[in-house]
Automatic annotation (TrEMBL), chains A, B:
InterPro entries: Aldolase_TIM, HMGL, PYR_CT. SUPFAM superfamilies: Aldolase. Belongs to the HMG-CoA lyase family. It comes from the Bacteria. It comes from Chelatococcus reniformis. One of its GO terms (biological process) is ketone body biosynthetic process. The lineage of its organism: Bacteria, Pseudomonadati, Pseudomonadota, Alphaproteobacteria, Hyphomicrobiales. PROSITE patterns: PYR_CT. This is Hydroxymethylglutaryl-CoA lyase.
Length: 316, 316
């Protein structure tokens, strides 16, 4: 009936995606407390901070303080995001895990508005990053195709364009002798539907049958979990998600930018369908409740409110 | 790849499901204004009110006033819900459409807690209802299996039990010479997952290949839209949903009871996958914004906030 994976790996994006867009100032201690609680749930990787311009993203002005304060739990990776060499320099001084990535945007307009570069220019930029990572001994793990399912400016992003982006990332990696873990298709502004998931994942699979795929999904139009299910059916086993549904893309160009799909809702759905995540759902639901208390307003996650998290969590 | 229907019929449940659980008192005029705006979107049927005990459900104490005030648009059906003969008597005096239904609950415990009757007793009760409907010339259209995907007390509801409920409803209808439009499987407290949708819908289809199925889905654990997609893939073309995600089941026995899946998010997903709904998405998103203003707090719908509703709606 479908090709559901036996297990999925989930990267927690809540702290970075969430705290960078909150209007209220979040105390550094609260961020640290949340990250430390997340680390107790069994999530293998937590994206904690962005090394971005604090003028532009004030919520991340304490990035270094957060990084320094986290009591790290063995076996969990704590990552941060940088978008330029100044950000990388800060990351190199911080005590978190350094994971390299190469990123291109499938929509030319979105690329220009979000990064100020054409797609061609971003490829040249990624080549430069690969050299920098090699220089610093940073492993490059995943390639990312942003806006792989459409964007607010161009709306539809053709499948052929997505394939060109994937091919470009793989060529770049080959050129540097790097075996990527795989390629993420990112629904950066939440334009995807289950059908567009099937078509794009199907097209990539047809061309690169052995390439591992990851999905970064935003729930901007309510299709996030349906999209995740469509991908699970096709065997996708790597997802980004955000505890409590924290977050949203501050650069997405419209006020409706919603957060990633909600980690505990995704974990619930996976466990109930017999897909292992390695995550303790009850602990994760408690983290989601903590996140809501920290940001001081309701967050979109459902399982944290539904009261069945403990029962469900105990089964897997 | 799948058996997506060309078109779906959506019954709007927002006014009834929503206003009956809101804590704040909603003005009758606001309820009427919302229902009239919904009727302009192209939805074929709107469930407006419950004829329930106003002591128990104060939000419905103005049911008659709402029914009397609606300026009805031709081609739209305006329905109300009754649960006992006192409710039916009120419905018979009100100027709304009368649609008969038979309802049983697959979980014995939920049936007892929610209706005070065993499953066997509810079947006897439904037999009595069919006689009453015939007496009053009310057509009985759909059978409903409540908690078809599990409940909070028994958790798992076996597939064989769901099949028994469907068989019982069909036998009852046959006994009275009624050709039901079909049978609704209701995920009354939001326990379903895409996999349990596939299994239960598949089992019913296998036994009754020509039986039309409807789905009533609650998004209690975040799986609502994924469940809808799983059902669409199997060709299900009849859904209940709730504008803005209004509502929730006040009898569900836990505080986390969430509303139905959100109508405009469902419509967005359908339109983007080439499935017609006959609904104007931009108008519906405006209704959702109105609902949020009326209830005075955020509602879970996404498309009403995402800013792409107009563009998406204009395509279908």
């Amino acid at each position: 009936m479908s090709d559901l994976p036996k297990a999925v790996r989930i990267h927690e994006e809540g702290p970075r995606e969430g705290f960078q867009i909150e209007r209220a100032s979040i105390a550094t201690a609260d961020k640290v407390r949340f990250i430390e609680a997340l680390a107790e749930t069994g999530v293998p990787q937590i994206d904690c901070i962005s090394y971005v311009n604090p003028e532009r993203v004030p919520g991340m002005r304490d990035a270094e303080a957060v990084a320094a304060a986290i009591r790290r739990r063995p076996g969990v990776r704590y990552t941060g995001l940088w978008l330029n060499t100044r950000g990388l320099e800060r990351a190199l001084r911080a005590p978190l895990d350094l994971v390299g990535a190469i990123r291109v945007t499938a929509s030319e307009t979105f690329s220009l508005k979000n990064t100020g570069m054409t797609i061609e220019q971003t490829f040249a930029e990624q080549r430069r990053w690969l050299a920098i990572y090699r220089e610093h001994g940073i492993a490059t793990e995943w390639g990312y195709v942003m806006t792989a399912f459409g964007c607010n400016f161009e709306r539809e992003v053709p499948i052929a364009q997505v394939l060109r982006m994937v091919a470009g990332l793989l060529d770049l990696a080959n050129e540097h002798g790097i075996g990527l873990k795989g390629v993420y298709l990112a629904d950066t502004v939440g334009h995807g539907t289950p059908l567009s998931m099937e078509r794009r994942i199907g097209a990539v699979r047809e061309r690169w049958p052995d390439l591992r795929l990851g999905l970064h999904l935003h729930d901007t139009r309510g299709t996030g979990m349906a999209n995740a299910y469509a991908a699970l059916r096709l065997g996708v086993d790597q997802f980004d998600s955000s505890c409590a549904g924290l977050g949203g893309c501050p650069f997405a160009g419209h006020k409706g930018a919603a957060g990633n799909i909600c980690t505990e809702d995704l974990v619930y759905m996976c466990h109930e369908m017999g897909i292992a995540t390695g995550i303790d759902l009850a602990k994760l639901a408690a983290c989601a409740q903590m996140a809501e208390t920290i940001v001081g307003h309701p967050l979109p996650g459902k399982v944290m409110r539904s009261g069945a998290a403990a029962a469900a969590g105990s089964q897997h």
